[in-house]
User: What shape does this take?
Amino acid sequence: MTKREIKHIDKDTLKKWIEDESLTEDLSKKADKIRREVYGNKIFLRGLIEVSNICKNDCYYCGIRKSNRNLNRYRLSKEDILSAADFGYELGFRTFVMQGGEDGFFTRDYMVDVLKAMKKRYPEVAITLSLGERSYEDYKAFYDAGADRYLLREESSNPDHYRKLHPYEMKLKNRQECLYNLKKIGYQVGGGFMVDSPYQNTDDLIEDIRFLERLEPDMVGIGPYLVSHDTPFRDFKDGSFTKTLRLVAILRIVFPYALIPATTALGTVNPRGRELGLKAGANVLMPNLSPQTAKKSYNLYDNKLNTGLEAAEAKKDLEKELASFGYRVVDERGDVTDFGNKN
Ligand code: SAM
Assistant: This one.
């Protein structure tokens, strides 16, 4: 399969696939078959660098929200970021993801400087940013300085549901406009959402899939909603593991060409989350390259799994573990355009 096709699934089928627990294994098998047709048994690694947990936003679900006073706030320096990349490059990583809260310290000029320095050191790596909503001009400057991809989950495509997750000043329209701006500029773009976020119902999830069909994303990142005790949503429940697996599978079926991670949240909610996520059609893992202090304080939710590779041997162990499931970790950039190139 070399064509970038989207498969539209009717609403009743989607509803059944999302809600029926007994379909988890069948959907996973179907999705795994598709990812093998498109990407073979390759797994792409992304080195995650959590650049800051300082955020001007107050999303009701997120542990690094502005109003959380119980968090040790940090921001990595340019040198910290580059040395995390040095470590990752030595291990074979060819994509780095810089993710963080919406931290005003990371101005356009500052980020351009960091991006240029990283691209100068490692011209062949892909750089992904996940720094939230920014102006068109910022996105363009980052792209021109070497950023290749951008992750910005839409979180919810139903305006009423979006409103229940975010304070009034945060607008779904704005977030969606950011995603379209990123596409226009030329980024490989990733959307996504949390599964079982508070007040979410099946129709909201279907609305998300429909929005993504219109967006035509290159990447889709989803994970279960997980409780952070330091947020107004502390009394809600963790999202369902198996529903998340079914949604990973559905996304692979709808977007056969897409880059889909088995996320840290999936690995946190279940010890076999990463493995079963890959078996449900995911083809990307994002080990954490952040320094230890950052890892400890980038607490989006409680009990976050630490999937770091503190030592080079850990990557070899990961490769062995994934080989035992029939997957092959490759030291490649892993662009969306690689689909159909299975070797
Ligand atoms: N500030 C950037 C942004 O808004 O896209 C990137 C950082 S943000 C913390 C990254 C993602 O973490 C969000 O898109 C959200 O889906 C996820 N997240 C935040 N709180 C979470 C929670 N309690 N459970 C699961 N995922 C969560």
Residues 61-62, 64, 99, 101-102, 130-132, 152-153, 155, 194, 223, 225-226, 228, 265, 300-301 surround S-adenosylmethionine (CB under 6 Å). The chain is about 40% helix and 15% strand. The chain has a mean pLDDT of 95. The first helix runs from residue 11 to 19.
